[in-house]
């Protein structure tokens, strides 16, 4: 488990990924589903920030997604902005059963844009689509918001694992494409891999 | 460091001398110069930056590096980065273990403090000596600043004064936000505040709402609800969205001008929380709360925890466990901890290492959640028998004897304790469930005594916007309440509510404090926890006044009424100073009249309780009750 040094091409490329969105939309659950393939309906609110990672294979390239799971509580927002820096991917989550979480998406996006690099790949996720009977945000609304702001869009369910894997791999693939097109320099000073060299051991690092 | 005032003048003088040779001119003698560390703070972390400091008679300024070592050519001047003007009211406090040096100024206008760290202990004391020498020769405080000689309460809390961003945010005389801690739960007239009503709403209607306190409501709707309250929609109806009300509570807590739990109390809680053994931890946390908390802060914290406790006890319905509720509220309650203002064991000496700072922030957030979760889980143990233990603690005995000195009865001390026991028995019966709290929020909210002090405090803040004064006045308010509480405790056995009422009902507005206080005494005597923390806060005031300026002789060793009078005269001074305060006085008068009516009603209700209290006490300590009664009544009627 090595962290690639600056300018050195490693066999594992680390992408820094952050999950953002209102409290209780299921950010931690999505992450848990992605990294450990399980679902818990009673997760405590994230305090400050949590982090875990998983290595996925993107077109033959092993890619480590190091995901920083930020707290949705507004109280922690001042801390969490520091985590945004150097992120390649932002997973912006809302809850399709709670309208206000969708209404706040624009604010989250703005906060991420202020801190994260311009090359940030953002995926908008409407979570809890297993509960579409209680839906208050339509698929079309989510899609059109994503289109206007240049985001990718998916509806997912951390419970049924619908689209969870897809969302993260799509994010990783997009970052690879950006690197190949030269839109993103993985060795740049604030690239995620450079930012957190000492915590990329794969386990949880800040709790 | 937000309070670093102009240092330009000092720097110019310094420049004129050619950078530190044999100086002569008045004010520019360099007492000492050399490197010190200055703190730079962020969320949950603190790092120390090395800077070059130069101390003269009039100022302490700092530079990136020693100006003498740099060529001084025109533009490339090594500009001063900041500094502080000195006056002779300042004092130096040293923390040897951490090599910390705090320069603080007691002036009420900005209550500046400046904490620096020395490289070595020798250096620390050299700086201390130099600073004391410089301060002794510094310009007279009275000439430099206003007349206000009010001291600050605690060093740690000066940080709060030094981060004055709340003032800009606070709308003028908002009914909801930006109120001082004392007014957090009750309005001036003693009726429940916005916060208290919202808390009650949550306890009633929020407990069944899934994700209450966790899920955010729409920001605009929260704002709208707050505005509506200001415009007169002052009650919450059952059909309101609990998430909005929950966010209102969070909003109000966030906008409090100072943290619900002050920095020093956060530190105490944190230290307690770090103990390994569970019992020791709980005990330490309990004493942190009873011994370091100013009374209004303790009440506010307890009230919020009570609401959280209620919510967490309905986990099956709202899916909020104690730790989940704690995670949602901890940053609001333990603000200084999250802001890195508590003395953490690990001080990060490195410059701007992001990951270390983030880890520190995460640590702080986790500790905060842990502390609040523990307080919630042990809520009953920590808050329920707090008074039992504390009434027998050495501090309370000392304070009791201090108060009782005014009664000229040397034997009261031991009896006081005996009495406390009796009182506790009664209290326990009363708060079998959460009775004490119920009384706190219900009955006590009618207390004009409380309202009286509140108003005083509130008015003082509004009148001259003296933020820095505020904590002290809050404390003074406490002191009086605490004193009343004490004398109340002593005479409780024989109290006749109606007599007290009629004896202490002056119609003169200028002396309006006595009535409220004696009413507060009657009503607050039902809150078992009150007396101890106030004694402690009083204790810290006294200590501080000794240490810092000692200019409050009668604060230290006068009896209750003497103290009250002292405060009253201070009060009258400020009354003369502006018309706005007269308005406030009128409001107070109206409120007082209204209250007197209500109090009379209240008193009748209380008389029943009083009677049972008395019966119990007399049954247990008949003799003491009688003896205590005698010395106290004359002093009551003198006033």
Which strand order does the major sheet of chain A show? Answer: 2-3-1-4-5-6
Rg result of chain B: 26 Å
The CATH class of chain A turns out to be: Alpha Beta
Which residues of chain B sit in consecutive blocks of at least 5 with pLDDT less than 50?
Answer: 1-26, 72-77, 144-172, 347-352, 386-577, 622-639
Biggest sheet features of chain A: 6 strands, mixed
Please identify the oligomeric state.
heterodimer
Fraction of helical residues of chain A: 25-40%
Query: What overall form of chain B do the CA principal axes indicate?
Result: globular
Helix count from the secondary structure assignment of chain A: 7
User: Termini distance of chain B?
Assistant: 46 Å
> What structural class should be given to the helix and strand makeup of chain B?
alpha+beta
The number of distinct β-strands of chain B equals 7
The N- and C-terminal alpha carbons of chain A lie at a distance of 21 Å
Structure class of chain A: alpha/beta
Major beta-sheet overview of chain B:
7 strands, antiparallel
Helix and strand string of chain A, N-terminal first? Answer: EHEEHEHHEHEHH
Q: What is the overall shape of chain A?
A: globular
InterPro entries (chain A): P-loop_NTPase, Rab_GTPases_membrane_traffic, Small_GTP-bd, Small_GTPase
GO molecular function (chain A): GTP binding; GTPase activity
Family (chain A): Belongs to the small GTPase superfamily. Rab family.
Main location (chain A): membrane
């Amino acid at each position: 488990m090595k962290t690639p040094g600056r300018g050195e091409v490693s066999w594992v490329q680390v992408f820094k990924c952050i999950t953002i969105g209102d409290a209780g939309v299921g950010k931690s659950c999505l992450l848990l589903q992605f990294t450990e393939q399980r679902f818990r309906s009673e997760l405590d609110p994230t305090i400050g920030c949590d982090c875990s990672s998983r290595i996925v294979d993107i077109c033959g390239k092993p890619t480590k997604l190091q995901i920083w799971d930020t707290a949705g509580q507004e109280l922690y927002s001042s801390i969490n902005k520091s985590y945004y820096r150097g992120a390649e991917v932002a997973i912006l989550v809302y809850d399709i059963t709670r309208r206000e979480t969708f209404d706040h998406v624009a604010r989250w996006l703005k906060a991420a844009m202020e801190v994260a690099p311009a090359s940030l790949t953002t995926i908008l996720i409407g979570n809890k689509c297993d509960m579409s009977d209680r839906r208050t945000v339509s698929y079309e609304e989510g899609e059109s918001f994503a289109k206007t702001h240049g985001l990718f869009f998916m509806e997912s369910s951390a419970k049924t694992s619908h689209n969870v894997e897809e969302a993260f791999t799509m994010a990783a693939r997009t970052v690879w494409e950006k690197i190949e097109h030269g839109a993103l320099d993985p060795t740049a000073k604030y690239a995620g891999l450079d930012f957190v060299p000492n915590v990329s051991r794969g386990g949880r690092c800040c709790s | 460091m937000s309070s670093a005032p102009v240092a330009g003048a000092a720097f110019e003088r310094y420049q004129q001398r050619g950078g530190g040779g044999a100086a002569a001119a008045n004010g520019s003698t360099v007492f000492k110069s050399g490197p010190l560390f200055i703190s730079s703070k962020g969320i949950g972390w603190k790092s120390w930056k090395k800077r070059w400091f130069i101390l003269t008679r009039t100022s302490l300024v700092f530079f990136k590096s020693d100006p003498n070592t740099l060529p001084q050519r025109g533009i490339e001047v090594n500009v001063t980065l900041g500094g502080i003007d000195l006056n002779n009211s300042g004092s130096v406090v040293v923390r040897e273990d951490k090599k910390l040096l705090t320069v603080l100024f007691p002036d009420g206008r900005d209550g500046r403090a400046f904490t620096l760290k020395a490289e070595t202990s020798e250096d620390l004391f050299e700086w201390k000596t130099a600073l004391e020498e410089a301060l002794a020769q510094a310009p007279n405080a009275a000439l430099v600043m206003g007349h206000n000689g009010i001291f600050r309460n605690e060093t740690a809390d000066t940080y709060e004064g030094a981060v004055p961003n709340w003032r800009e945010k606070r709308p003028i005389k908002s009914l909801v936000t930006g109120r001082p801690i004392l007014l957090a739960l009750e309005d001036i007239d003693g009726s429940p505040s916005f916060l208290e009503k919202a808390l009650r709403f949550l306890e009633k209607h929020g407990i069944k709402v899934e994700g209450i306190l966790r899920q955010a409501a729409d920001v605009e709707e929260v704002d709208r609800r707050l505005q509506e309250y200001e415009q007169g929609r002052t009650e919450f109806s059952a059909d309101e969205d609990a998430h909005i009300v929950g966010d209102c509570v969070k909003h109000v807590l966030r906008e409090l001008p100072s943290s619900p739990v002050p920095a020093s109390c956060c530190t105490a809680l944190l230290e307690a929380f770090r103990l390994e053994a569970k019992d020791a931890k709980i005990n330490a946390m309990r004493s942190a709360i009873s011994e370091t908390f100013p009374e209004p802060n303790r009440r506010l914290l307890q009230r919020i925890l009570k609401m959280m406790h209620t919510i967490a006890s309905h986990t099956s319905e709202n899916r909020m466990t104690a730790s989940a509720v704690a995670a949602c509220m901890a940053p609001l309650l333990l603000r200084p901890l999250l802001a890195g203002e508590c003395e953490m064991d690990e001080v990060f000496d490195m410059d701007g290492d992001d990951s270390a700072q983030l880890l520190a922030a995460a640590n702080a957030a986790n500790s905060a959640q842990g502390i609040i979760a523990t307080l919630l889980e042990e809520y009953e143990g920590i808050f329920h028998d707090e008074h039992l233990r504390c009434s027998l603690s050495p501090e309370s005995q000392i304070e009791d004897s201090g108060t009782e000195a005014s009664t000229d009865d040397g034997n009261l001390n031991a009896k006081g304790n005996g009495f406390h026991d009796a009182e506790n028995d009664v209290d326990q019966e009363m708060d079998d469930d959460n009775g004490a709290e119920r009384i706190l929020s219900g009955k006590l909210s009618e207390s004009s005594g409380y309202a009286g002090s509140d108003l005083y405090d509130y008015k003082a803040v509004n009148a001259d916007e003296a933020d820095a004064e505020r904590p002290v006045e809050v404390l003074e308010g406490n002191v009086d309440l605490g004193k009343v509480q004490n004398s109340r405790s002593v005479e409780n056995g024989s109290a006749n509510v109606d007599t007290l009422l009629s004896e202490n009902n002056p119609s003169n507005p200028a002396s309006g404090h006595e009535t409220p206080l004696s009413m507060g005494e009657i009503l607050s005597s039902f809150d078992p926890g009150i007396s101890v923390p106030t004694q402690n806060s009083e204790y810290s005031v006294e200590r501080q006044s000794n240490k810092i300026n000692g200019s409050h002789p009668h604060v230290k060793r006068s009896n209750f009424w003497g103290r009250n009078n002292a405060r009253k005269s201070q009060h009258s001074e400020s009354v003369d100073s502006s018309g706005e305060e007269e308005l406030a006085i009128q409001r107070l008068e109206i409120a007082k009249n209204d209250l007197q009516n209500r109090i009379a009603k209240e008193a009748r209700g209380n008389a029943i309780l009083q009677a049972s209290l008395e019966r119990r006490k007399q049954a247990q300590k008949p003799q003491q009750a009688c003896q205590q009664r005698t010395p106290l009544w004359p002093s009551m009627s003198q006033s």
